């Protein structure tokens, strides 16, 4: 039997009786990161990186959570588990699993570009590699982050010069903080949606440095918004909450902005191609860096991507999972606390 198998609850290691990112409740869960499709409520015991733990606890509540440092080895019934930087969001990890010379890596979600905010991706050698394929088509190719944020700041600057409010959307955990970190605060003041500011507070409490932000509340005078920028969740766009900003320009930051029509469907005037997942070249580079011959393709363009890998000589198979990549992370349907924050924001 392989060291890792896939069943109706998730990625399973029978030898250690643990699951990686299970989508149904299990006794023991190893969690790659805090996004809702990978970190779910209901497990008896959780294991994550120390950096991921505060957000996981904030989102899931009072859970039994144990933490490890990057590279620290946790041995369970002879199986060695270790967490290694995935470069996706703060605290995100790939999980390496080893037993009697058989080595697997479950990558969760990951990106190769160093965003300067989370721990940079580290390739891990293995024979079996489980990869996402959220953007597993050749059309998805990101421009360097520096160029992208120059474009975002130019848009904000132009919007401010027109006396309008700039609104840019990104999911509350990961994308929002990356946007904040790239904004030029000399242009104006940064306001944040409640769900984003709650996440910011959790991250700041663990020592993560973010620029100064102000929570959007009913106490803020509407006249203060023009010329400044609001970082909001995608689910807030089209809601009554947006009306308080008056004459505004709305931008969406997502890898899906590559596609024609995506901006219109998000109710945005502008689209910026910004993703915390790999583009096509980075997916191929990451797989090559592992040295693995056996590739297991999860969420995204699984059929197309696995077919391409087989044509390149890999033993690649596609798998059905409950992971959704950036489709889940845009949080228009998201986690329970995000829904509550959207409801509260609509009242403010």
UniProtKB/TrEMBL annotation:
Top-level taxonomic group: Bacteria
Feature: compositional bias, Basic and acidic residues: 330-340
InterPro entries attached here? MBL (IPR050698), RibonucZ/Hydroxyglut_hydro (IPR036866), Xnuc_lig_assoc (IPR026360)
Task: Cite the residue spans of the region called Disordered.
Answer: 328-348
Cross-referenced SUPFAM superfamilies, in alphabetical order? Metallo-hydrolase/oxidoreductase
Question: Which PANTHER family does UniProt cross-reference here?
Answer: BLL1145 PROTEIN, CLEAVAGE AND POLYADENYLATION SPECIFICITY FACTOR FAMILY MEMBER
- What name is this protein filed under? Ligase-associated DNA damage response exonuclease
Organism name: Neolewinella maritima
Q: What is the lineage of its organism?
A: Bacteria, Pseudomonadati, Bacteroidota, Saprospiria, Saprospirales
């Amino acid at each position: 039997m392989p060291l890792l198998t896939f069943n109706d609850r998730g990625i399973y290691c029978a030898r250690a009786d643990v699951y990686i990112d299970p989508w149904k409740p299990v006794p023991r869960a190893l969690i790659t990161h805090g996004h809702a499709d990978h970190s779910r409520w209901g497990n008896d015991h959780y294991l994550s990186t120390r950096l991921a733990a505060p957000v996981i606890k904030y989102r899931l509540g009072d859970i039994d959570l144990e933490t490890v440092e990057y590279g620290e080895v946790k041995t369970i019934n002879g199986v060695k588990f270790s967490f290694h930087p995935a470069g996706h969001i703060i605290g995100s990890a790939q999980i390496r699993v080893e037993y009697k010379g058989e080595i697997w890596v479950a990558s969760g979600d990951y990106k190769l570009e160093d965003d300067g905010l989370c721990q940079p991706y580290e390739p891990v050698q293995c024979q079996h590699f489980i990869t996402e394929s959220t953007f597993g088509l050749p059309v998805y190719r990101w421009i360097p982050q520096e160029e992208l944020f120059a474009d975002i700041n130019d848009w904000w600057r132009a919007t401010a010069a027109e006396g309008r409010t700039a609104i840019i959307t990104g999911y509350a955990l990961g994308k929002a903080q990356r946007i904040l970190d790239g904004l030029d605060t000399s242009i104006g003041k940064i306001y944040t949606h409640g769900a984003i500011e709650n996440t910011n507070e959790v991250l700041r409490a663990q020592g993560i440095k973010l620029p100064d932000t102000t929570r959007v509340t009913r106490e803020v005078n509407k006249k203060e918004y023009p010329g400044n920028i609001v970082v909001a969740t995608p689910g807030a766009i089209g809601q009554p909450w947006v009306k308080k900003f008056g004459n505004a320009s709305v931008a969406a930051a997502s890898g899906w902005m590559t596609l024609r029509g995506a901006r219109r469907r998000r109710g945005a005037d502008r689209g910026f191609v910004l993703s915390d997942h790999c583009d096509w070249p980075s997916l191929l580079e990451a797989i090559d860096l592992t040295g693995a011959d056996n590739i297991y393709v999860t969420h995204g363009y699984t059929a197309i991507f696995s077919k391409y890998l087989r044509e390149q000589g890999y033993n690649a198979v596609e798998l059905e999972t409950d992971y959704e990549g950036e489709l889940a992370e845009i949080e228009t349907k998201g986690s329970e606390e995000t829904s509550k924050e959207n409801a509260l924001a609509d009242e403010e």
